[in-house]
Design a protein that fits this description.
This protein is mainly alpha-helical and about 270 residues long. It has three domains: about 70 residues, Orthogonal Bundle (Multidrug-efflux Transporter Regulator, Chain: A, Domain 2), CATH 1.10.1660; about 40 residues; about 120 residues, Globin-like (Orthogonal Bundle). The protein has 13 helices and three strands. Strand 2 and strand 3 form a beta hairpin. Helix 11 packs antiparallel against helix 13. The longest helix has about 35 residues. It is globular, with a radius of gyration of 25 Å.
Length: about 270
């Protein structure tokens, strides 16, 4: 009597509710909702009651989003990568691994430089250190990169000169005041974003004006036009976006939109008659 072989049973799909995903990953429920709204991480299924249900595949995708955010990619860049026809998860992860490995190597060099600095502090107690030892203190840094970047963005402009003159005079208390004021402004904007206020609401307009005055007071004269010009920097340099987004997911795009909403306040150039 022959026995028929049954085909292997496929594993039942496993799904997680949004709070379970939050507990597993440490990503807040609000952020998961935001990623869904932006089309970055739409849940695989919905329950009969309408609850978001995430699959294992969704969790892999969430991990990739978080890695790319750590590397400084904007949400728009991540979404475009996911939507590209050529997107392949294995290739994407291998590329991310390469970038993380390069960053690790760079950080290890700077860590070595810090260790050398600690050694130097001990050596200076008994006399001056050698020139070769001092050179090792700067291993891992690329001053030319930062200088060329600053030149490309500001050049020998009056803005750059004034900022240099002001900031070199600041002490620890000044920088503490700067960080505190900046945090208050960005936190206020983040609250407005979470509340669903539009970029041109009275509350947001007041915060944007505080942001402009903050730059004007601490760094360089910041007119409405200069403030508007900063939006290009916030969008083009991932490091600025990453720093601002630490105060709230999507805050960079919201701040840019809010500053641009102020553009109508810039007087139009008068025409010669």
């Amino acid at each position: 009597m022959s026995m028929k072989t049954r085909p292997p049973r496929s594993r039942p799909a496993r799904f997680y509710r949004v709070r379970e995903v939050s507990a597993l990953t440490g990503v807040s429920v609000r952020t998961l909702h935001y990623y869904d709204e932006r089309g970055l991480l739409p849940p695989r299924e919905r329950s009969a009651s309408g609850y978001r249900l995430y699959s294992d595949e969704d969790l892999f995708r969430l991990q990739e989003i978080l890695i790319q955010r750590e590397l400084g990619f904007s949400l728009e860049e991540i979404k475009r990568a996911f939507e590209a026809r050529s997107y392949d998860r294995r290739e994407a992860l291998e590329k991310l691994r390469g970038e993380l490995a390069a960053r690790l190597e760079h950080n290890q060099k700077m860590l070595g430089a810090v260790d050398r600095a600690l050694e130097a502090l001990e050596q200076t107690k008994s006399g001056p250190v050698s020139a070769s030892f001092l050179k090792e203190l700067f291993s891992g840094f690329d001053p030319a990169h930062h200088a060329s970047e600053a030149g490309a963005r500001w050049g020998a402009t009056e803005v750059w000169r004034i900022s240099e003159e002001r900031t070199k005079q600041y002490g620890r208390e000044d920088w503490w005041s700067i960080r505190t004021e900046q945090k208050m402004i960005l936190s206020g904007l983040s609250d407005a974003l979470r509340e669903g206020q539009p970029p041109d609401s009275p509350t947001v307009r007041a915060l944007v004006e505080r942001h402009r005055q903050f730059i004007d007071r601490w760094f360089y004269p910041c007119s409405l036009k200069q403030h508007l010009a900063l939006t290009r920097l916030y969008e083009s340099d991932a490091r600025f976006g990453e720093n601002i987004d630490r105060h709230g997911t999507g805050l960079t795009a919201f701040l840019v939109a809010a500053i641009r909403a102020q553009e109508k306040r810039i007087p139009a150039p008068s025409r010669k008659r």
